[in-house]
């Protein structure tokens, strides 16, 4: 509303291209580099492993992309994962599907709280989800009795280890979710509306859009996606570990979204870019692991990627 | 000459009264709740209101208080510093390493490194135009990475043998431990700095309106930069004191500390949107969290997960109240 | 290129404009933004103690020039001079330190800080140990404001004060930093009448002290009342410099527009057709007893299909609030809106839209356009659910609608896919109108539909309003330009202090009646109606 805005200098065409295609370029470069210097990188086994490993971050990032598109952020995705992971083994006695549903519903409680706080109370997303990030994981630990539980249900294990025609179930589920979210964003009324809310919330309200409902649904969707990621993660580990599952995953997810070209200022959602962003993070990690770089350094490198990606994307501001 | 009475416009007398009331709740809410909780706890647990227990709470809270002082300055500018937990750990590890060259090095090295980390983050926020939470989230990750890198992946814990440093960490004056005294002295300095110096007023102004501050000629970028430097120094100092207290630089401390610090600051009435903050409130917020932790420990059957539920829930409640109150004020 | 700009002999006979070294000068200043020339060799001279109007249409370069003068921008060519000496302002602070201060349209102070803190920010009086001496700061602030006849509790947060008082605080701050030139950019746009008077009084006091004022405003009355010199910009160039007293109003307008005097004088200042569309049809919308504390009180309104109802009144009289109440944007305490016999749920925008009531908001940028989206997406935003099947959007349906309105409203965009933020203000406004027409509304509420758009687009929008009314749409028009209300509306409902005071119909709809009604009880001086020049745009200016 202020009459004087101090603008960042206009970026050149080169930067615009980098914002749009930088993530794909980076993927190609790193793959080529691996082709040259990393033995056994381009094996079916390794590629499959990489795909399976990226699944949780990718699914969480899909939800995060929607939230960021509305000019929000969700720091509580790790807590949602933990909640789903904590609940799943408790109800697995009733069968896989009921346990799955209860686990998703448990995570929905976190999403609902986020959504109500952000949409109806008007709390800043970062704080609302920060409190849920703390309280949600505490709740998950309480539900789980602060214990690690092995998971032996065959359906759950199949989710983590099984394949169809050589493609892991986890990858198939992720691909299906990507397709669904892509259609949601690009082909539905809801998709357009959520971008409008992120682009200019006040204008969206005055255009008669059900802004609060849209925001609520977005945080619910984000929590459910995180819960799916939590269940797949639990299946992969064959154990429910609510204390550590999804720790710092919000950071990876936000990085994937931003690296993929969705600005933190909202008003745009890039699903293909988000997928590419998650893949990029994964192959960087894989490359570092293959070259025996200690975990400590890959953390530092990931931090550097975040800073560079956000720095490149930061010019994409439309309103202030 | 006709005088303009400010009766026209958005401030009628009833509104003014309400505004004052809201302001009072924001400023004194945390201290009042603290007093109530302490009274209730004193009657509920016989071991609560004892000198040993109270000094213990003070000591446990002093590290968070020091971190919270830096965090208050950052939040007053409308920013946030998520890297403090990692910097806290790094400060401790560095202090323990450097203690082999004497206690002065053990304090100076962490402070210099903390300032440097703060400067890098501050520069990215102030001149890079990047969102503070993303910069400091990256800082959280990177600094934790540095801690792991210099401790063999967290497997080495450097020990402190320097006698002076041990005294700073474990000794005291008139029954009050040095970390508590240092924390309170820094609090007083912080209050004077924030409310009685031009620099501090600049910090408040930048948080209130960056645009207006620029136009009024304040060095906005420098102000923003400096609060992150301050926060880095405070977090590193707290880490060094904690290392002195435990006689070792444990690499895994400080995880989640940023959340406690932010909670304490917000509970204390500092607006997360910036422009208004109270260090006394931060003290109250820190003590409140410390008392709650202490009560949970007293109950015994409660676990650490309850602690996170309570502090997360507390943060949510306080923020809801703040949001509703400030919306009231705007009408 | 410019007429003699320095020490115009005609300026000598104006009492307070003491001849002498110009206090502030721009010499051949040019400024380009990514290839587009915003300022082209501007010469601009301000003498001590004079009030100098800076005039020009939107896009003429006024705001760019102000930003160069105050150090926000640096000139690409040319230089600034202070008291005759070349000077360079790297940042706003440099300009302020050199005595060039600016008062902006929206008060640019810190709302949460106290009045005194705002006045002295960055130069607080210090005492013991270099610490801020609050007591002295409060006393100094009280004294400073007192000199301008303003008495407020200087410890109160700024935002708890009325806008006019906030503006005075900004002015007091500017002057107390030893300002020699105060640039005022639309200072009165959000002030109450009494506050405007205070501002003018203070301006007089400042000039008596030899402080020069550069005054930017769209309000002709104010310009002629306050200023003695004028510099007119058009397309980034200076097209006229001279004494305002020697420049009749119509010529000033013609210089700003770049049209001949005859063209402006002919047929009024707007593009509304002469004939009215009086309608005897049954009302489509009846609003009764619309009330909200401190804003509107018992406002009633009926609108018939095919008529344009103007809402008259000063800023803060409740015009925008009435529209917001009808369109569900603002929750009402009391009152009802009935459309075609159906009561519309209050306080719900979707309910109002479903009932056929749509509102074009006043602030296009903040409340209208979604900047990141394309022209197409912006147009169909509200209509999207209707153009979709089972929640899936249909590009074909959208294109049909978008095509119709882009042609009909002559929206100039390279394609429907162009980002709306890249369009000019006028075209953005047309996109907004298209968004609402796509909903086939029954009642169209327009809040300042032509504000901030260029002359050509303004004429098109005015003609469109006419056309829509002829087609049977019921329209409510709010505009701060008197002639737009008078020439555009068939009836004018006049509001004062949140209440309807009168309704003008038929021959009463002219500027004189409207002014009287707005001012009430013959106290027409409120909007400067006692000045011979204020009512029409083509009178000669005798002063």
Structural commentary:
- Chain A: It is a multi-pass membrane protein.
- The complex is a heterotrimer of chains A (320), B (331) and C (543).
- Chain A is mainly α.
- Chain A has a two-stranded antiparallel sheet. Chain A has a two-stranded antiparallel ribbon with strand order 2-3.
- With 331 residues, chain B is mostly helical.
- In chain B, helix 3 runs antiparallel to helix 4.
- The two termini of chain B are 32 Å apart.
- The N terminus of chain B is likely disordered.
- Chain C has 543 residues and is an alpha/beta fold.
- Chain C folds into four domains: 187 residues, P-loop containing nucleotide triphosphate hydrolases (Rossmann fold), CATH 3.40.50.300; 72 residues, no CATH class; 193 residues, Rossmann fold; 65 residues, no CATH class.
- In chain C, 31% of the residues lie in helices and 23% in strands.
- Chain C has a six-stranded mixed sheet, sandwiched between helices. In chain C, strands 16-19-20-13-21-22 form a six-stranded mixed sheet, sandwiched between helices. Chain C has a four-stranded antiparallel sheet with strand order 2-1-4-5, with helices on one face.
- In chain C, a hairpin with a 2-residue loop joins strand 14 and strand 15.
- Chain C is globular and about 70 Å long.
- Chain C starts with 23 loop residues before the first strand and ends in a 24-residue tail after the last helix.
- Classes of the chains: A mainly alpha (320), B mainly alpha (331), C alpha/beta (543).
- At the A-B interface, helix 4, helix 5, helix 11 and helix 13 of A face helix 5, helix 9, helix 11 and helix 13 of B.
């Amino acid at each position: 509303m202020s009459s004087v805005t101090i603008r960042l200098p206009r970026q050149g065409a080169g930067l615009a291209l980098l914002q749009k295609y930088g993530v794909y370029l980076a993927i190609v470069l790193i793959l080529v580099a691996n082709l040259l210097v990393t033995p056994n990188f381009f094996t079916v086994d390794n590629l499959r492993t990489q795909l399976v490993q990226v699944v949780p971050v990718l699914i969480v990032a899909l939800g995060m992309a929607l939230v960021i598109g509305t000019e929000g952020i969700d720091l509580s995705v790790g807590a949602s994962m933990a909640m789903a992971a904590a609940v799943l083994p408790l109800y697995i006695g009733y069968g896989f599907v009921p346990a799955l549903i209860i686990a998703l519903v448990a995570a929905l409680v976190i999403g609902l709280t986020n959504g109500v706080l952000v949409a109806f109370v008007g709390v800043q997303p970062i704080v609302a989800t920060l409190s849920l990030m703390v309280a949600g994981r505490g709740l998950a630990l309480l539900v789980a009795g602060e214990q690690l539980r092995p998971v032996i249900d065959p359906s759950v294990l199949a989710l983590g280890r099984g394949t169809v025609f050589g493609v892991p179930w986890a990858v198939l589920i992720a691909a299906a979710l990507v397709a669904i979210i892509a259609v949601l964003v690009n082909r539905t009324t809801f998709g357009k509306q959520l971008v409008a809310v992120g682009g200019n919330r006040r204008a969206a309200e005055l255009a008669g859009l059900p802004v609060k409902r849209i925001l609520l649904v977005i945080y619910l969707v984000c929590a459910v996606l995180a819960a799916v990621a939590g269940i797949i993660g639990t299946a992969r580990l064959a154990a429910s570990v609510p204390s550590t599952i999804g720790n710092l995953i919000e950071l990876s997810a936000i990085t994937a979204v931003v690296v993929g070209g969705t600005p933190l200022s909202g008003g745009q959602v890039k699903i293909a870019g988000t997928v590419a962003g998650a893949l990029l993070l994964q192959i960087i990690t894989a490359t570092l692991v293959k070259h025996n770089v200690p975990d400590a350094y890959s953390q530092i490198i990931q931090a550097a990627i975040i800073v560079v990606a956000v720095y490149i994307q930061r010019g994409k501001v439309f309103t202030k | 000459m006709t005088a303009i009475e400010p009766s026209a416009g958005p401030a009628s007398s009833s509104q003014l009264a309400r505004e004052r009331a809201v302001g009072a709740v924001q400023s004194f809410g945390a201290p009042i709740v603290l007093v109530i909780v302490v009274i209730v706890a004193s009657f509920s647990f016989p071991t609560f209101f004892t000198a040993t227990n109270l000094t213990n709470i003070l000591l446990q809270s002093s590290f968070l208080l020091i971190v919270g002082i830096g965090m208050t300055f950052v939040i007053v500018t409308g920013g946030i510093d998520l890297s403090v937990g990692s910097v806290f750990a790094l400060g401790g590890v560095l202090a323990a390493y450097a203690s082999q060259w004497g206690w002065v090095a053990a304090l100076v090295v962490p402070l210099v490194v903390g300032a440097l980390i703060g400067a890098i983050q501050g520069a990215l926020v102030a001149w890079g135009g990047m969102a503070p939470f993303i910069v400091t989230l990256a800082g959280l990750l990177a600094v934790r990475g540095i801690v792991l890198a210099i401790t063999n992946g967290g497997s080495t814990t450097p020990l402190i043998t320097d006698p002076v440093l041990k005294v700073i960490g474990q000794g005291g004056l008139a029954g009050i431990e040095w970390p508590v005294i240092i924390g309170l002295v820094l609090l007083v300095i912080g209050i004077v700095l924030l409310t009685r110096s031009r620099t501090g007023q600049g910090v408040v102004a930048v948080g209130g309106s960056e645009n207006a501050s620029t136009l009024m000629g304040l060095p906005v970028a420098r102000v923003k930069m400096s609060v992150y430097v301050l926060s880095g120094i405070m977090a590193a100092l707290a880490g060094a004191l904690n290392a002195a207290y435990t006689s070792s630089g444990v690499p895994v401390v400080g995880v989640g500390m940023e959340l406690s610090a932010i909670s304490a600051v917000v509970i204390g009435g500092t607006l997360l949107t910036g422009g208004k903050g109270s260090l006394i409130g931060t003290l109250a917020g820190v003590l409140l969290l410390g008392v709650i932790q202490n009560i949970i420990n007293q109950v015994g059957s409660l676990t650490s997960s309850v602690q996170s539920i309570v502090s997360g829930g507390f943060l949510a409640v306080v923020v809801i109240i703040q949001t509703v109150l400030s919306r009231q004020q705007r009408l | 290129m410019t007429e003699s700009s320095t020490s115009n002999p005609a300026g000598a006979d104006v009492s307070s404009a003491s001849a002498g070294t110009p206090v502030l000068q721009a010499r051949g200043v040019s400024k380009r933004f990514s290839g587009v020339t915003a300022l082209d060799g501007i010469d601009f001279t301000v003498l001590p103690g004079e009030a100098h109007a800076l005039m020009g249409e939107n896009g003429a370069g006024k705001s760019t020039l102000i930003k160069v003068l105050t150090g926000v921008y640096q000139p690409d060519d040319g230089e600034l001079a202070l008291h005759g000496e070349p000077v360079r302002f790297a940042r706003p602070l440099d300009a302020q330190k050199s005595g060039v201060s600016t008062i902006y349209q929206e008060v640019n102070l810190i709302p949460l800080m106290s009045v005194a803190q705002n006045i002295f920010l960055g130069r607080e009086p210090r005492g013991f140990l270099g610490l801020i001496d609050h007591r002295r700061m409060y006393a100094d602030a009280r004294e400073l404001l007192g000199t301008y006849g303003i008495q407020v509790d200087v410890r109160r947060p700024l935002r708890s004060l009325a806008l006019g008082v906030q503006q005075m605080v900004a002015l007091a701050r500017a002057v107390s930093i030893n300002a020699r030139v105060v640039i005022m950019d639309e200072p009165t746009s959000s002030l109450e009448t009494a506050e405007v008077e205070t501002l003018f009084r203070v301006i007089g006091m400042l000039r008596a002290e030899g402080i020069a004022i550069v005054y930017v405003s769209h309000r002709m009355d104010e310009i002629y009342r306050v200023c003695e010199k004028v510099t007119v910009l058009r397309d980034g160039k200076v097209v006229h410099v001279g004494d305002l007293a020697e420049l009749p109003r119509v010529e000033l307008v013609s210089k700003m527009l770049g049209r001949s005097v005859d063209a402006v004088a002919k047929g009024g200042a707007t593009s509304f057709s002469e004939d009215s569309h009086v309608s005897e049809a049954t009302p489509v919308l009846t609003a009764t007893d619309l009330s909200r504390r401190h804003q509107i009180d018992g406002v009633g309104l009926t609108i018939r299909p095919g008529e344009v109802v103007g809402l008259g009144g000063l800023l803060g009289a409740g015009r925008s609030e009435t529209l917001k109440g009808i369109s569900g944007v603002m929750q009402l305490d009391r009152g009802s809106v009935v459309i075609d016999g159906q009561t519309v749920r209050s306080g719900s925008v979707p309910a109002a839209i479903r009932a056929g009531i749509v509102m074009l908001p006043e602030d296009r940028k903040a409340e209208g356009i979604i900047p990141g989206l394309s022209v197409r997406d912006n147009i169909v935003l509200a209509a999207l659910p209707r153009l979709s099947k089972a929640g899936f959007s249909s590009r074909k349906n959208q294109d049909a609608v978008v095509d119709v309105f882009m042609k009909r409203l002559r929206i100039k965009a390279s394609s429907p896919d162009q980002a709306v933020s890249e369009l000019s203000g006028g075209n953005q406004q047309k996109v907004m109108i298209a968004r609402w027409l796509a909903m086939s509304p029954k009642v169209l509420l327009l809040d300042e539909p032509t504000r901030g758009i260029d002359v050509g687009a303004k004429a098109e929008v005015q003609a469109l309003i006419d056309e829509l009314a002829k087609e049977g749409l019921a329209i409510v028009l709010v505009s701060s330009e008197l002639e737009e209300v008078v020439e555009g509306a068939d009836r004018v409902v006049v509001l004062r202090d949140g209440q309807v005071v009168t309704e003008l119909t038929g021959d009463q709809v002219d500027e004189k009646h409207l002014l009287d009604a707005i001012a009430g009880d013959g106290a027409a001086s409120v909007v400067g109606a006692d000045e011979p020049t204020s009512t029409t745009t083509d009178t000669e200016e005798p002063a």
